Amino acid sequence: MSEIIKINKDRIEEYLSKGKRFDGRKLDDLRDIVVETGISKNAEGSARVKIGKTEVLVGIKMDIATPYPDSPDKGNLMVTAELIPLSSSRFENGPPRINAIELGRVIDRGIRESKFIETEKLCIEEGEKVWNVFIDIYSINDDGNLLDAAGIGAIIALKNAKIPKYDKEKEKVLYGNLSDEKIPLSNEIPIPLTIYKIGGQLIVDPNKDEEDICETRITTSGFNGTIFSMQKGEGGSLKLEQMGEVLDLAKKVREKIFLKIKDYL
Amino acid sequence: MEKEFSRPDGRSPTDMRKIKAKVGIIPNADGSALFSFGDTIAIAAVYGPRKMHPQHQQNPEKGTLRCDYKMISFSVEDRIRPGPNRRSSEISKVTDWALEPVLLLDRYPNSVIDVYINIIQANASTRCAGINAAALALAHAGIPMKNLVSSVSIGKLDKNLVVDVSKEEEDWEEGEGASDIPMSFTSNGELTHIQLDGRIDNEKLQEGIKMAKEACEKIYEVQKKALKDFAKKE
Predict the structure, then answer these.
(1) From the CB of residue B58, how many other CB atoms can be counted at a distance below 10 Å?
(2) What is the pLDDT of residues A233-246, one digit of tens each?
(3) Domain residue extents for chain A
(4) For A3-264, CATH number?
(5) pTM
(6) Which class for B142: exposed (0-12), middle (13-18), buried (19 or more C-beta within 10 A)?
(7) Which of A36, A82, A86, A160 to mutate to test the interface with B (most CBs of B within 10 A)?
(8) Ordered alpha helix ranges (H), A134-261
(9) What is the 8-class DSSP label of residue B91?
């Protein structure tokens, strides 16, 4: 931990113990969320999500593939996250590192476990041809909480995606020629939310300074009280009663996120 | 009888698509900018000058400009597999060469100026949009520059020269087909980058270079305005 981060840590923790944050928010306040959809004409669906100064782009691409042997009548889902060096001095080129891999997998599990995508409706010919759905996430500016920004971007991009037309005879996807058909989605939306523990206090939506000193974090995806996926990240530990607080807080704040983005869902 | 030539989107031969330039779009970066030609959108971020790593790449004589051009996976119709490829490596290098002449790199020994360019939506002429965004981002980062750099593509569709090639034009098949000639100029009119794919004679090429220079003068005005608008806002 660098000297500056250490000094910050003491001040931030002192503030949090009084229920305050540097930017004037309460511990359970989110920053403003700004959403824009259809940001790429060549993607089947896309979204830009800004949470405060954090920004991500999420795009949906589809193609035809052979199904996996254990799910011959279901489409496939693939989530990839790239933390590109354009978005922070801390990110470098090269094969994805653990933070990018984890980000992609956490978002993947929320969407997969919620059965948000009705993959059985993405089958063209059982055992032969199904749709692949790629969800690609790019960080554009990392000022903390990429996890939630990415998760929100993923569900909104899926929601506005349209399946491209498919020429069955030529076995060719006609890109740029979107059908009116949307990706079949269920009503159970995996709304993401990460709770961070700093100086023993629980907060949501940290900026980078706060995220840097977090002891542990718990990401959940859920809807209306149902949780679909969970991941604890970083070291640190939580007492059982604090875990209870985490879940209560997650439920409450997830509702706030839903209200902020429901026009796009 | 020859059919009269017209561009697929109805532009006149010297018309560019709608240009947009904006500076200061990525708060984390030391400098950043967006530049678009119609549906082609490039963003660029500058980090540095900072110490060059790995150390063996440090140059005690002068600093290094390290441009990195990439297309994001959903910027085109057929998804691009994330990660470097031969095309993006070459364009990154060409972008270095287009911008280096205006920089005073000998002021930054052992350092690197990283310029990350990402194409977020592609409809041809992406390297030109990337160079325009990169030049703006370098200026925004306050890196001393002798001049700005502006870039545009010239196409030859059959026998007709056009400015700012679109995807549809790139795929032109009639007559002699399409030639694609991306070029970059400093704001005092020196050519820092030219590439060519296709077939063209000297005379026509000269004509094309002149068209590119004139278009780059217009682009320069838009870039200058973006920087001034940003300065006003601050």
Answers:
(1) 15
(2) 888 888 888 988 99
(3) 3-264
(4) 3.30.230.70
(5) 0.87
(6) exposed
(7) A86
(8) 146-159, 208-212, 240-261
(9) H
